[in-house]
């Protein structure tokens, strides 16, 4: 959601880490902003090999961490 992305300081195409409540983190996922996702929510696509959602368990909430890219 565009409003959620703005509130989190995220832009389309930026890398993020997604952390579940159980301590598992999926690293370097790419932000895609979609107005069809409810405000305050994120959508994670299932079936991405490098981001197996089942690794997050049954987490009702996740934490997004902006990845700092250095040159």
Structural features:
mainly beta; 71 residues; 24% strand
How does this structure look, described?
- The protein contains one helix and three strands.
- It has one helix at residues 2-8; strands spanning 15-20, 25-30, 62-66.
- The protein has a three-stranded antiparallel sheet with strand order 2-1-3, with no helix packed on it.
- The chain is globular, with a radius of gyration of 12 Å.
Query: How is the largest sheet built, in terms of strand order?
Result: 2-1-3
Strand content: 15-25%
| Helix count, DSSP H or I runs of 4 or more residues | 1
The helix/strand series, from N terminus to C terminus, equals HEEE
Global shape? globular
Structural class: mainly beta
Largest sheet: 3 strands, antiparallel
Model regions low in confidence, pLDDT < 50 over at least 5 residues: none
Rounded Rg: 12 Å
How many strand elements? Answer: 3
Distance between the amino and carboxyl termini: 29 Å
The percent of residues in helical segments reads under 10%
Please tell me the overall pLDDT.
86
What's this, in brief?
The chain is mainly beta and 71 residues long. Helix content is 10%, strand content 24%.
Q: What's the arrangement of secondary structure elements?
A:
Elements: H1 2-8, E1 15-20, E2 25-30, E3 62-66
Antiparallel strand pairs: 1-2, 1-3
């Amino acid at each position: 959601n565009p409003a959620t992305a703005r509130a989190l300081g995220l832009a389309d195409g930026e890398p993020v880490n997604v952390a579940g409540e159980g301590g598992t983190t999926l690293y370097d996922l790419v932000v895609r902003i979609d107005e069809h996702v409810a405000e305050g929510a994120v959508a994670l696509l299932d079936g991405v090999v490098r981001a197996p959602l089942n690794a997050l368990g049954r987490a009702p909430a996740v934490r997004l961490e902006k990845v700092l890219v250095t040159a």
